[in-house]
Amino acid sequence: QVQLVESGGDLVQAGASLRLSCAASGSTSSIHTFNWFRQAPGNRRGLVAGITRGGDTKYADSVKGRFTISIDNAKNTVYLEMNSLKPEDTAVYYCNTDIGPHDYWGRGTQVTVSS
Prior knowledge:
By secondary structure, this protein is mostly beta strands. The chain is built from no helices and eleven strands. The strands form two sheets. Strands 2, 4, 5, 6, 9, 10 and 11 form a seven-stranded mixed β-sheet that branches.
């Protein structure tokens, strides 16, 4: 079992920056990859960024160059640094990982970007 807790969401103006955190607990030694997803009202949940324990990263095209995912393996915490935020980044951001056939999700943190 793994528990994921997100934090850092806020209401900000366009152009601002935010840093989201995802703290993992439980069977963390079995985790190899962490992901950030987001879901806006009426939209499907989509991948924003992912990172492996070794630091390999991937990003959605819409956030490349603006968002940076990082990991602190000692703290089992993943971060999402978001710069130059746009109104279209408004969504609930979820932390995710999987261990074998099991998928784990946090409860999400709301990011709202006003124009």
